[in-house]
Design a protein that fits this description.
Strand order of the largest sheet of chain A: 2-8-7-6-5-3-4
CATH class of the largest domain in chain A: Alpha Beta
Distance between the termini of chain A: 24 Å
Largest interface: A-B, 86 and 86 residues
CATH superfamily of the largest domain in chain A: Type I PLP-dependent aspartate aminotransferase-like (Major domain)
Order of helices and strands of chain A: EHHEHEHEHEHEEEHHEEHEEHEH
CATH architecture of the largest domain in chain A: 3-Layer(aba) Sandwich
Oligomer: homodimer
Number of domains of chain A: 2
Number of helices of chain A: 11
Number of strands of chain A: 13
Strand content of chain A: 15-25%
Amino acid sequence: MVYLDNAATSYPKPEKVYDAVLDHMKNFGANPGRSGHQLALQAGRGIFKTRELIAKLFNIENPMQVVFTCNATDSLNLAIKGVLKEGDHVITSSMEHNSVLRPIKSLESKGIENTIIQCDCEGFINTKDIKNAIKSNTKMIALTHGSNVTGTIMPIKEVGKIAKEANVLFLVDGAQTGGIYDIDVNEMNIDLLALPGHKGLMGPQGTGFLYIRENLNVMHFKEGGTGSKSEELTQPQMMPDRYESGTANAPGISGLGAGIEFILKEGLEKIRNHEKELTQYFIDELKKIEPVKIYGPKDAEKQGAVVSINIGSEDSSEIAYILDSAFNIAVRSGLHCAPLAHKTIGSFEQGTVRFGIGYFNTKEDIDKAIVAIKEICSEI
Amino acid sequence: MVYLDNAATSYPKPEKVYDAVLDHMKNFGANPGRSGHQLALQAGRGIFKTRELIAKLFNIENPMQVVFTCNATDSLNLAIKGVLKEGDHVITSSMEHNSVLRPIKSLESKGIENTIIQCDCEGFINTKDIKNAIKSNTKMIALTHGSNVTGTIMPIKEVGKIAKEANVLFLVDGAQTGGIYDIDVNEMNIDLLALPGHKGLMGPQGTGFLYIRENLNVMHFKEGGTGSKSEELTQPQMMPDRYESGTANAPGISGLGAGIEFILKEGLEKIRNHEKELTQYFIDELKKIEPVKIYGPKDAEKQGAVVSINIGSEDSSEIAYILDSAFNIAVRSGLHCAPLAHKTIGSFEQGTVRFGIGYFNTKEDIDKAIVAIKEICSEI
């Protein structure tokens, strides 16, 4: 199996991630942050270690501002709904995932306005459009760092500057870029950073986090046992307990820590360069195949390791099915939970065949994909 | 280490649970329900299998009514906040965990009334009190099946009947009983059943579920990618997608499936009888130790495998610390996230030392705990 669906979930994981999950489950699978015995403390330390590693990777000063969630969708809902109130206005882009668009659209019924900036056909946003969309009641700009359909990298540093100057909160969806691209919450003026653990960060599914800038009051939307201030019937306000009710996915978080340690050891640049190289090679080879239409920038300097294509007018899911069944190549087809992105790039009806390249992919994997695509094209 | 903190998290897990998590992560760690390739389908099947196993264990007709969550707190928040609206009234008990009490108290500000039925000093509820508390605007009764402080088993079948007769929804928190006691959502008229995966169900942390009775409209409170109806900017209404946005903890859910398979193979009765036996033995031995005060029913027929004690007026966390550091026995001290339960049984100031007995505990474990408690008592 050639796995080219890393934009959905990175696979495989570094061996140490499996080891960390298993070690945690087998050797200290107790309840972190609740009881005070050795196993519970060790479980709690596993969680805190990962919090610190996340802080290190994204230049977050205080690890307690890192809130663990169960996935990026969870993080994004918390950020969007925890901040926006009736009368507020939020700016986002047409390249967003449904985990940003659906919460924002759902808030319309609560009197929260939105502006969805139309991106160009390669998925790029014009920062002037963002600037122009800012109104007196604009509370937040919510932007993906990299499109999950075309890989298009958004100018988040520039947008962060715009947000700061306008005194508007900046929420970044780093689902496609965290663990591969540099994200510095301070330098980029990011107030809220949402990430899954199971993509670029190489952690297990069932993990994610939201970074919340200090002194930013985000309304929690779950209450429960936190192991702190148990005598009170109101949710404690301390970080990160306020947002972490109930038992955490502690083995998963330990695994995520091992994933981040792997990334820090390899170095972001090495990871990024490897993915860039494969992406550009893939694009260059695809360009030579007549009926293949490539979406997005077609330039690995301007996009992450995500390449969306179509073959003529063939149904994208049909092509993905052939790649899987006849060539043992795993990709994803359809709309990838980002309908407006497909309207933006002109593939709403057809969807796209998406190749998500990961750090563990090799040139041979790309060659196999190219051979398969050529063969499919020759038989159409 | 003698682990007697199973009321927080069951530990260890059956070997097959570790195997299932690792097998899932290593061999089909793709994104379930999103892409259509073999690995993704296999991951999806792993999730569906667990859904079916849960349905089987709790006599749920349609597995699609089982919604995966990240823990019981998540499930309880969804059930409580998804159902109750301004003007509604909810009945609960003084023995509830903060994962029930805190959400219910938070809803007061939204015009949702509550009645907290005072239980007796052993934690029992008088069903007449529930009946009497029902008003014309009562929408829900939310009740734990077993107290996490005293183990007291609540008469959920009787309460289910009361709820049905009054046309009131019945939410059961099965955190301490699921996987040990019989819970039949049909026979017991349970409309909503919230459970963690990591306690009696023997699954990994980071898993849980909410059963929602068919045709019951529970408002979701997260939107995002569901891998279904991706062309729409509104959340799909189909079950269980409506409540399962974002990537699930698929390896964890596979592990949970293995836990439930273990339970089904052993049989609930065997599990329950083993825990009952140890609990009664522990209680009987504790009764012989002069300065030990035992809370709750002191009768394994009327309580789960949870025994809360204090030694004279000693601080409960001090005792737990000694058990851990001098005797290598893991227990939990304090309020166990259930403050009103402690007010009910008279231990709000002192907290309790809680012994959570699990299926993998042995008579030898209990003997070690007894020896340790005797020794501590003799030195005070």
